[in-house]
Amino acid sequence: MPINIFLCDDDLVQLETLTSFIHSIFSKGEIAITQATSGEELLSKIDAVKPDTVILDIEMKGLNGIQTGFILREKFKDLIIVFITGFKDYAFDAFSVKSFDYIIKPVTFSQFKMLMDDITIRLDQIRAYKEKSQALVIASRDKSAAIRYDDIFYFEKSLRKVRIYTKCGIYEYYGTFKELMNNLNMDFFVQCHQGYIVNISKIKEIRKDELILNGIKPSISMSRKYKSNVREAMSCRLFS
Predict the structure, then answer these.
(1) How many CA atoms lie within 13 A of 157 on its CB side?
(2) Cα(55)–Cα(8) distance, rounded to whole angstroms?
(3) Do 163 and 174 form a contact (C-beta atoms < 8 A)?
(4) What is the pLDDT of residues 158-177, one digit of tens each?
């Protein structure tokens, strides 16, 4: 999935400058940009798309950037908030919002590129933590288990059962892939075949009609129908 970056500034020139910087740094499909010219407009747009990063000015009419930042922090505990402002006097307030960075205008491209590099690293750390901490809970008549995403290599459909291949062995339970995908966070997995769903982070290599996974053999079949989905998931994984 692309990185969702929200830009908020009542200066349209600044908005377009930052937008052009982002397009110069990232390739098409790696990012999605949402613009807003006020705190109120920004907050109205976060219900439709969850932001990964918000870059906002401080001095704006209505809700200022600090007030907007506090509201955002209440909603999204791990959100990366960056203030880009022409004033130095709000640094303490920005710290109270637990902002990722505080930059004084004017912002150069090289300065902004360094910021986005740091943000990309931080997003990768957040994603890795979430993957390690998230778990799939399965239950059967005899027992139940919570399996961490980080321990899962892939899922295999076997008649009316789903088999889970993990670092700790193989689990199986009665169910369908449709039910499974409703219960999984599919940011971390991708279907590569009618009978297989793989952990994106375990994919080592994509070949013509198979996937090579880290830490397990043999290879996993990949059908033409799902090949583009796998490539897209792998690409997004590198920039998330």
Answers:
(1) 17
(2) 6
(3) no
(4) 999 999 999 989 999 999 99
Chain centre to alpha carbon of residue 119: 12
Average pLDDT over the chain reads 91
Residues whose CB is less than 8 angstroms from the CB of residue 53 and which lie 6 or more positions away in sequence, other chains included: 3, 4, 5, 6, 79, 80, 81, 82, 100, 119, 123
Spatial contact of 207 and 200, defined as CB atoms under 8 Å apart: no
> Is the dihedral angle over the CA atoms 193, 199, 201, 203 positive or is it negative?
negative
Contact 32, 59 (CB under 8 A): no
Give the tokens for residue 59.
């001095």
- Highest mean pLDDT (candidates 22-26, 137-141, 182-186, 227-231): 22-26
Q: How confident is the model at residue 98 (pLDDT cuts 50, 70, 90)?
A: very high
Residue 181 is encoded by which pair of tokens?
Answer: 């995908």
Measured CA to CA, the distance from residue 19 to residue 17 in angstroms comes to 5
- Report the C-alpha gap between 123 and 80 in whole angstroms: 8
- What would the DSSP string read from start to end of the chain? --EEEEEE-S-HHHHHHHHHHHHHHS-BTTEEEEEESSHHHHHHHTTTS--SEEEE-S--SSS-HHHHHHHHHHH-TT-EEEEEES-STTHHHHHHTT-SEEEESSPPHHHHHHHHHHHHHHHHHHHHHHHHH-EEEEE-SS-EEEEEGGGEEEEEEETTEEEEEETTEEEEEE--HHHHHHHS-TTSEEEEETTEEEEGGGEEEE-SSEEEETT--S-EE--HHHHHHHHHHHHHHHT-
For the chain, report the end-to-end CA distance as a whole number of angstroms.
7
